[in-house]
Amino acid sequence: MTSPFNAAFEPTESELAAHELARFYHDTAEAFDRTVCTGPIVDGSVRPATPLEAAIIGAHAARLRRQVFEEARARGVDAADLKRAIVRLA
After folding, report:
1. What pTM does this model have?
2. Residues 6+ apart with CB under 8 A from 18
3. What pLDDT is stored for residue 10 in this prediction?
4. Radius of gyration, alpha carbons of the chain
5. Whole-number mean pLDDT of the chain?
6. Which residues is 41 bridged to in the sheet?
7. With contact defined as beta carbons under 8 Å apart, do 55 and 38 qualify?
8. Residues 71, 21: contact at Cβ < 8 Å?
């Protein structure tokens, strides 16, 4: 007898692309943040030390997020799948 919990899970192409784009978003944002921020590193991520640093990295993250969502749309990736992937990697 086979249990339903033994089923193999194979991610779809869209899910794989969403994960790839989410990884790109996080890696790119963190790399930029490390060039701007002078605050401490907490849980592996650098933190802004001033409101100006926070504003600069926030603006960059917003631009990057728009670019990643545009790429997702071009690749046929559902926006909700990409949002979930980004949150999972945070």
Report:
1. 0.85
2. 72, 77, 78, 81, 82, 84, 85
3. 85
4. 17
5. 92
6. 46
7. no
8. yes
